[in-house]
Amino acid sequence: MAETIFSKIIRGEMPCHKVYEDQHVLAFLDIFPLSEGHTLVIPKEAAPTLDKLSDDAAAAIGRVLPRICRAVLEATGAKEFNVLQNNGPMAHQAVFHVHFHIIPKPNEHDGLGIAWPTSPIDHEAAEALAAEIADAING
Fold first, then answer.
1. What is the pLDDT of residues 114-132, one digit of tens each?
2. Rounded to whole angstroms, what are the CA distances from 121 to 53, 117, 118?
3. 99 is catalytic
4. Which end of the chain lies in a sparser environment, N or C, as judged by fewer CB atoms within 10 Å?
């Protein structure tokens, strides 16, 4: 995997405003926050996208992500928040090391703003796709 700014932060070669660290996970404030308390949570394992991350590293993030969310909310006073995770350039990923954004939403103007263009599901096609995904998970 290519070297990223997160690799340098993990090794202590670049500073960060650390909020949490254990053997597998590091969390720190985003240097270009969408709102106060915008925090990044990264695995110490280098993987460019979530599908490339090991089960152990994913479990380590899953164990601490809710705790870090609670701490960000407590520290900022926000009651609502987004957790965002992008995979690949078309999905707006800018740093190619898995990372989760915890973005407090203190009001309707600050934090993450997104459009969510939906369309109705085709139930026949969905049934076939769900079976295909289940097969991929199991096999």
1. 888 899 999 999 999 999 9
2. 30, 13, 9
3. yes
4. C
